[in-house]
Amino acid sequence: MSPARLLRLPQLARLLTLLLSLFLAVGLFAPQSQAAPAAAPGGAPSPAPAGPAPQPATGSPERGDGERQFASADQRAPLSLDTRPAEVKATTAPTTTSLRLGAAAQQACNTGDFTGRTGGDLVQHIKAADIQCINSLFPLTGADARGAFREEQMTTVAYALRDAAGGYPGDNSTSVEQLVLYLRAGYFAQWYHKDDVGPYGTALQTAIRAGLDAFFGSAHSRDVAAGNAPILGESVTLIDSAQENVRYLPVVKRLLTDYTSATWNPAGLAWSVNPVFTVLFRGHQVAGFDAAVEADPSVLDTLSSFASRNNDLLGGDYGVLVYNATKELGRFLKDPALQAKVRPLVKALAAQAAPNGRTVFQWAAAAEAVGFYDAANCSYYGTCNAADQLKAGVLKVNDTCSPSIKLIAQALDATQLGTACTSLTGQDAYVHSVVKDNGPVKDDGNTTIEVVVFHSSLDYQVLAAAIYGIDTNNGGMYLEGDPAKAGNQPRFLCYEAEWVRPAFQIWNLNHEYTHYLDGRFDMYGDFNAGMTTPTVWWVEGFAEYVSYSYRKVADDAAIAAAARHAYKLSDLFDTVYGDQDRVYRWGYLAVRYMLEQHRPDVDALLAKYRVGDWAGARTLLKTTIGTRYDAGFDSWLTACANGACATNPTVPQLPECAAADPRALDANCARSNVAATTGNYAHFYLLVPAGTKQVKITTSGGTGNGDLYYNPAGWAYTGSYATRSAGPDNSETLTVTNPPAGYVYFSLYAQQGFGGVTVTSEI
After folding, report:
1. How many Å apart are CA 82 and CA 91, to the nearest integer?
2. How many CA atoms lie within 13 A of 434 on its CB side?
3. Ranges under pLDDT 50 in the chain
4. Domains contained in the chain, number
5. What is the pLDDT of residues 14-32, one digit of tens each?
6. Quick one: 502 and 555 in the same domain?
7. What tens digit of pLDDT does each residue of 428-440 get?
8. Cβ neighbours, 10 Å, residue 453
9. How far lies 602's CA from each of 442, 607, 691, in Å?
10. How much of the chain, in percent, has pLDDT values that exceed 70?
11. Which residue from 23, 26, 376, 444 lies 20 to 30 Å from 670 (Cα-Cα)?
């Protein structure tokens, strides 16, 4: 939709919503420049606390598009070892938490059991609870949050950790993990709801240090064994939650030094060492951290050694560890007092790697750090023009799907390119049939789109960040730029879903492409203009609607949401970026309901969106419609949950062209059952009225392979045409902007004999 079509959130919503439900990973609108502060429902800036935010629950669902936007691209957090979307993780493999629990351990979980207990009674109940129950406490607010996590409660639990850790046996038989996770939940709740929980002071600080000292001082905390892995990982994360990043720098160094891939990875301890990079990352936001490293810079040597000696992990499942180590080492370039120490270490890691091949992640991490903190000296590191070097090194596949779509990829083969192009080009006609537009909105020059496809979720997170300078903790991004600026090139970034291989799927391909089409044909101006009033319900709901209905896939998550009746339709018109379930699932439901039940209102709304009448559109939604459809929406939700939404909506088809000549097309009609033998043509002509802004010709269906040609001056042939659409099958689209008045000509050339093809013309 614009230079900054971005999902931007307050920190509160950004992390809290990770705990609430499993959502489909969808893509983002994003700026090509630094993001502005997130906007709250009333349009006022949303406050966010300073310093590092505690991390959400272990095993909590993290959307593939997490929506975790940092102030600038250099503040991206370390990557997880599993970069797949959260709902994929949840459905394809059990978490380490669920593996430890087993079905028999699933107990009833009552918040009151934690808020109504104190002292030893509270401690015993925590230790007896299962992990999933403790996980469920992270989102507590209000009186519940205070009852569970006020300082007296947390201090009691921290000392209980001290006592339990003294005899820690190297597994969870003494419930150390429950105590650690409870403390993490408390810090999380207090960070985001300080007024609810109350302040934390020196009493808790003394207690948490005693607990962490006892754990990391216990001999079995160093066990290289599967039983120790989850507790160790939780405890490292607790360092950051408690903002004790300075005190436990020796633990960070110890873990990085002790790590040996041959023994740690099989025991699951790679997952335990990875949180140390978050301790380092967020440490820069803790008072005294930089000074501590300046006083004892040995952690820099430890990071360098870790990355260097584990170079063989690059290109494999644990290469993220090397990437994170290189990234966190390079981040210290921001400290002038440390640059003399850090520069040669970063240079050495860059020299061990290359902007392509197995070591590209290490090179990208070094190059990013240099770009952010030492760009004037890039020649010293060999990383000048890093984005161009990486593009040349990894994005080697270029394919023109159609005159308006260029596909750039890391590793797609010819068959995969054909599949992707067919899906994209076929979507044009579908979207136009839904929104019934009259061509691009005024001042929109985004006539072409670049579709950039990375080879996996990890490739996207590392390489798209380094090349395009964006936060990639998401399921993809649409970078629109300024549609009114000459030479602007919109693009969207996405990736192959590696978890479905050997099947082929590009994650969010159709959702992101809908953003491009919607921005070009429905939403005037740029993203910031469109967000002067709440339009998120349409922007994201429509992208979800098209992605599912065009692909003929049921949106099971939205259907499940419908059964909960959580929102009124009039409330959904106020949706802003934040609650992911509301943005995507409920956006889908609101858009589908309006299209199916109140089509004239959608047409009136889009007429205002297309000219930038945001205030008029807002009046239509909140005053003209207001609450009048709330009851109908509620009834529709019941039907949707009971099966009405299990099938996809049918988009009205264009009528057959009425002219007797089978070659004659007309405005908004179709010719069915078109056929031609190999090497021959099916010719068509169309009389264009003066002042026509756009003509769109689309072919679809049938067998064989026909390529579409256009000629404004006479019959169109392969040797006489102005433009063409030549895909691998019969899904072709040509859009002619400002065509000449009078007769224009199209033809479908049979690369392979075709039959049963439908040709549609839209004016």
Report:
1. 14
2. 23
3. 1-50, 58-73, 92-106
4. 3
5. 233 333 332 333 444 433 3
6. yes
7. 888 988 998 888 9
8. 26
9. 20, 8, 26
10. 87
11. 444
